[in-house]
Amino acid sequence: MIPLVQPTSSGLLQALEDLDKGIVSHTNWLKMLHRALICDDEKADEKDIQPNAHCNCNFGQWYYSGKHPELDEMEIFAEIGRQHQAMHDNAREILLKSDREEPIVFEDYDSFISLAIDFKLEIRKLQQQIIDQVCVVDHLTGAWNRQSMTSRLTQEYERVVRSGNSCSICMLDIDHFKQVNDTHGHAGGDQVLKGIIDRCVKELRAYDSIFRYGGEEFLLCLPDINPAAAHPLIERLRITIEESPFELNNGNSVKVTASFGIAHITPEKTLEDVIVEADHALLYAKSQGRNCICTWNT
Ligand SMILES: Nc1nc2c(ncn2[C@@H]2O[C@H](COP(=O)(O)OP(=O)(O)OP(=O)(O)O)[C@@H](O)[C@H]2O)c(=O)[nH]1
């Protein structure tokens, strides 16, 4: 199953922009390099002849800055770094040959230009991966978004039907959240939403997933858990939310509670039925005074 949450995407969106700048600056760099090689009155940039030219260009400075931890863990990002260095190393060799007035054979040129093309294609591939990731994640909380929920839950439903394994879903809704916004502002409310996800990550299992279902409502998918075991797991989460105050950036501390509705996936029900059941169970929990769990029994 997919993990609980993904890192929030503001860093990734910034990376998309920075990668675009990398493409633009290297397109300009290629133009200047060709000029230096072709036009008699143009000289190569001294920086391009240095052994560490790949660290000194704008993209290189950004690449080695360590300011994008989300990318540093991606294999494709490491590959881009290798290609970028190889491209600069090749350019340096060509420029030095030109300086020494040695012939630049077509193999030298072809290998250099292939590296330059591959570098650009690899950056475009990374950008596509980032876009795919950003599109399935809720930007505020890092939970999976509603668009990704149906396909993920369908996979889980099919697994239950195929293998007979159990799976529960749980609706979580923060109690009186409007009051949090009214008292602490929308920014304070946003911090509480993020804090709820932190508490879910702490209490749920690594293979559970959290989807942002609506404003202050989340759907938890709990695979391989029998109906009897789902309740104690969610009870731990309920208590953690109730007992750990949320520290806001403005120095205030807020206490909130949440209500929960649990339903179980079974082959004879549709996925839509199970979501409706969890929703009904949640409404019942609200009607019972909130800060409690209600399980739909069929
Ligand atoms: N800060 C913040 N508020 C949100 C967001 N999305 C929805 N809300 C607010 O969530 C509140 C939900 O209010 P209600 O549906 O009345 O529910 P409630 O106050 O939690 O009351 P109960 O659910 O009945 O306990 C509204 O005030 C919305 O403006 C968001 O992304 N950020």
UniProtKB/TrEMBL annotation:
Catalytic activity of the protein: 2 GTP = 3',3'-c-di-GMP + 2 diphosphate
Segments forming domain GGDEF: 165-298
UniProt-listed GO biological process terms: cell adhesion involved in single-species biofilm formation; negative regulation of bacterial-type flagellum-dependent cell motility
Coiled coil (residue ranges): none
A molecular function GO annotation: diguanylate cyclase activity
Cofactor section: Mg(2+)
Any single GO CC term annotated in Swiss-Prot or TrEMBL for this entry: plasma membrane
EC number(s) on file: 2.7.7.65
Name of this chain's protein: diguanylate cyclase
Organism: Solemya pervernicosa gill symbiont
